[in-house]
Design brief:
Elements: H1 8-12, H2 17-33, H3 39-64, H4 66-82
Helix pairs in contact: 2-3, 2-4, 3-4
Length: 114
């Protein structure tokens, strides 16, 4: 018979450990939503997230330990730098020299064939 997992470490956590974890999850959700803002507000919102995230990450590390703190730092960096919900623009295919609108992508024309 297998023993149920030992969850006594949750009872030894400080009273506000769950609040710190909830604050970090809220920060992560807001960081994902920043990409949906207009471009003129994104830089300001990112700076505000960084200012709010540093103390939240410190509090999380203090209460939950360095492993969870490093994981939170990694997730925050991934979201701030990666912007998973950012609007992606389609790039136009590169146009080479001599290729304008309506020009076929191959060199030459009917007069160039023998």
């Amino acid at each position: 018979m297998t023993r149920p997992p030992d969850l006594t470490f949750l009872a030894t956590q400080p009273r506000y450990a769950g609040l710190a974890l909830a604050l970090v999850v809220l920060w992560l959700v807001l960081a994902c939503l920043v990409a949906q803002l207009p471009a003129r507000w994104q830089l300001r919102a990112t700076r505000a997230l960084i200012l709010a995230g540093v103390p939240a990450l410190g509090w999380l590390t203090l209460l939950w330990g360095p492993g969870i703190g490093v994981a939170g730092l990694g997730m925050g960096l991934l979201i701030l730098l990666g912007r998973p919900t950012a609007r992606r623009r389609r790039r136009a295919p590169p146009v080479g020299p001599g290729q304008g609108a309506g020009t076929p992508p191959f060199a030459g024309g009917p007069e160039g064939h023998s």
